[in-house]
Amino acid sequence: MSKKNLYRKNVAMIIVSNDYPLKKEVFIAQRNDFDNVWQFPQGGIDAREDVQEAMFRELEEEIGTNKVKIIAEYPEWISYDFPPKIAKNMKPYKGQIQKYFLVKLKKSAKIDVDTKHPEFSDFKFVSVDEALNISASFKQKVYKSVIKHFQKEGYL
User: Fold this and answer.
1) Could you tell me if 26 and 156 are in contact, meaning their C-beta atoms sit under 8 angstroms apart?
2) Residue 3 and residue 116: Cα distance in Å, rounded?
3) Residue pLDDT, tens place only, 75-129
4) Gap between the Cα atoms of 17 and 23, Å rounded
5) Class of residue 58 by CB neighbours under 10 A (exposed 0-12, middle 13-18, buried 19+)
6) In the chain, what are the domains?
7) pLDDT tens, position by position, 30-47
8) Which of 26, 81, 82, 123 could form a disulfide with 86 if both were Cys (CB 3.0 to 4.6 A apart)?
9) What is the DSSP letter of 82?
10) In angstroms, how far is CA 111 from the centroid of its own chain?
11) Cα(142)–Cα(156) distance, rounded to whole angstroms?
């Protein structure tokens, strides 16, 4: 496997509520398989699936709705390595390479994390700073880079 293929292709979403831009809070969810681990929704990109198709599919699978409007896209792919505890279950991958989107929930969207195959046990909308404070430590460098970009562009 080439070095490039050591990273699983993934799509990730920073979701703002339908009160955006009046409120610039972001959605963060608590994983149901690790104690007190919070993250933004994300998921793998299937073969022959484009990034936006994967984004809408993953939103539906993870939060029960794909009723969002894309506000912005992070201009690059960005990667992180899995910590050892997770890496052993993710072979042959060393980490994930992700494409990030900033999306806004539509007024008609109803979040329900109790999906067919639930990945989250809870969710909330919080400030960007709080999201960074409670997110998984191994994802924080990526989160900070993406959020900094969206802030610089005036979105957050």
Assistant:
1) yes
2) 34
3) 999 999 999 888 888 889 999 999 999 999 999 999 999 999 999 999 999 999 9
4) 8
5) buried
6) 3-152 (3.90.79.10)
7) 999 888 889 999 999 999
8) 82
9) P
10) 15
11) 16
